[in-house]
Amino acid sequence: MSSTDDYDSLSKEEREARDKADRAREEAEQAALPYKWTQELGELDISVPVPEGTRARDLVVVIGKKKLSVGLKGKDAIMDGELCMEIKVEESTWTLEDNKVVLIHLEKLNKERWWENVLTHHPKIDTRKIEPKNSKLSDLDGETRGMVEKMMFDNQQRHMGKPTSDELKKMEALKRFQAAHPELDFSNAKIS
Question: Mind telling me which Gene3D superfamilies this protein's record contains (predicted)?
């Protein structure tokens, strides 16, 4: 890779040409790997093709905090090495799909960083060029969506110095109670 100073001195067309060449090289390097992988900020999914008819008991899969190995018993590993970063082993899994692909799901320990590669000795990708999929509120299930909308509303209310949804509920409950009990004096009541 060339230095950023060098890149900054290029014209727009030269930058586009270099970006295109870098992308093509990156795609070729990734295509040459014995697996395919995708990532989100918090997780990584890897698919490793194995000979058709493979059974789970024919596989040797090792998922460690900083290590990953996939292979067939008695043969050289298909992929084996140190992971780019640490993972949560207890939340990472693997399955065999259609007796021909090993699907591996890794939960990243640091959910704030993109990985440059899966195994440290494999070619890197340029993480600055990653465009995360934007998740829309409409993509969320009802309960999660409601929670996110409530958080957004409460944040907005706090910024404006207005009561949050919980405080509004308490005030509403108090008003209903006062209306139901006009004989009680609430003039010195403190609401917390």
Answer: 2.60.40.790
pLDDT in tens, 51-86: 999 999 999 999 999 999 999 999 999 999 999 999
Domain identity same for 120 and 77 = yes
Q: Does residue 37 share a domain with residue 23?
A: no
Cα angle value 44/21/31 (rounded, 5°)? 40
Helix (H) or strand (E) segment spanning residue 7: helix 4-8
Count the residues in the chain. 192
CB 48 within 8 A of CB 95: no
66: Cβ contacts below 8 Å, ≥ 6 apart:
82, 83, 85, 86, 87
Are 104 and 65 members of one domain? yes
DSSP states along 17-31: HHHHHHHHHHHHHHH
pTM for the complete prediction? 0.63
88 and 145 co-located in one domain = no
